[in-house]
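SEVERITY: medium
COMPONENT: batch folding queue
REPORTER: lab tech (J.R.)

DESCRIPTION
The queue accepted two submissions in a row. Attaching both inputs and their returned structure tokens so the on-call engineer can compare them side by side.

ATTACHMENT 1
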Amino acid sequence: MSEWLVLSIAMASACAVVLIIVVLNNRRVGDDDDPSETPDVIEYMTMMIGVVYAIVLGLAIAGVWEGRSAAQESVRIEAQALHEVKARASVYPAEVRDRIRADVDAYVSHVVNDEWKVMSERNTLTERGTDLLDQVRADVTGYEPKTDHEGQAYQPLVDQVAAADDARSSRGQNAGATMPGVVWFGLIIGALVTVGLIFTLQIRRTFRELLLAGLFSALIAFLLFLIWDFDAPFGRGISATADPFIDTFPGITR
């Protein structure tokens, strides 16, 4: 099911539930009911709970967005490190240089075309990707420099392979959801409480009040959707992309 369809259903359901409850509740209100009798303390508590929940939502959104940004940055670092390996290998003999570049291209092609899909569906890296990167490492470390120029390029090449490996590990760690279940429990219960407090203010069936109640509940649903979508940096609609690999290695296409 599309993420945007999930969002539409969630927002529509939140609006529908609130509006139905308001309409049914007001049908039981007697003619002598006075909405102005709502205690001031209830209004204060409603305001404070709303403020606290808004802060919690803001922190949750900031946290998952930071996780997504970190995931995208790890992809950029990995792609740039592998690009440096290809570029710096130019000082090596043609046979060694071509082997290194071919193995780098094979690894990048696997990441873009195969491993990315596995990360999205299973939240893990592939063994094939690990083997291909190990082959790149073996190509770089297995060659013994013959000249001073090659010797000066050797350690930077090793360092770039290590940087790519570290970024790959970070990418694997960020593949799954990062928001703990207990936080989700708090966010959902908080949403129910915050929306439920609308009814303590004796909301009526005027168009203005119904519209505000519906929009408020839809906003809560939308913010929860954003948190859910950002929570899996590689697995949902607004996710980290493989664009750094595609941009750095123009010959690699999906």
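ATTACHMENT 2
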Amino acid sequence: MTATPASSAAAPPVVDRETWLRERDELLVREKAHTREGDAIAAARRQLPMTLMPTVTVRGPGGDTPLVEVFEGRRMLIAYFHMWHDGKPYEHQCEGCTFSTCHMQMLDYLHARDVTYAVFCEGPYDESAPFAEFMGYRFPWYSAKDSDPALADGRDFGFIACYLRDGDKVYETYWTTGRGVEALMTTYHALDLTVYGRQENWENSPEGWPRVTGHPWRLNGRPTAQWSRPGVAPR
């Protein structure tokens, strides 16, 4: 992945501050409408019916672990279903799943709201757990490779599922994939605030704006987040 150098990229027109503030205020009206619609969608999401999960297990550091124990005593669980390529080295593991979940390092605010975050990996535990350690992940890591198929329920890995615990019963309350997984990608939300945005080819940006070449989540043959990990050779 490379991007056009800033010095050679186009830029927005320059206007006086009064004009700039007026146009910023016009955009703010749209942003507030977008926020209110997002709040309405979130309210509808909270009021979705839920479905009872069968008794399923995942494999963790202590062996087979019932889903209800993944909650760690909390009421809610967010699980990211991480793709895995069996037998492949770390640099060949899923760059999208790496990008999604590498942001989830600060869990305090989730825990304060009675929410546990965990990853259910598609690969075997003994193979994938060292990857989680290499990445420096602080969240619980489990393997769903040999879990009851009801856990993934026919969905391709690379999705988020949310659960509610009521005693020993577990209910699935919501799931999302595709662009919905961007809920974890704080980098994307930050980039969206900048003048050049995500710099990806699908974005509606003026001619001359910098664009990423190559895979947007890889850099020099690795998922981008891996380059800062101990033991990885400098770029």
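NOTES FROM REPORTER
The first strand starts at residue 51 and ends at 52.
No errors were logged for either attachment.
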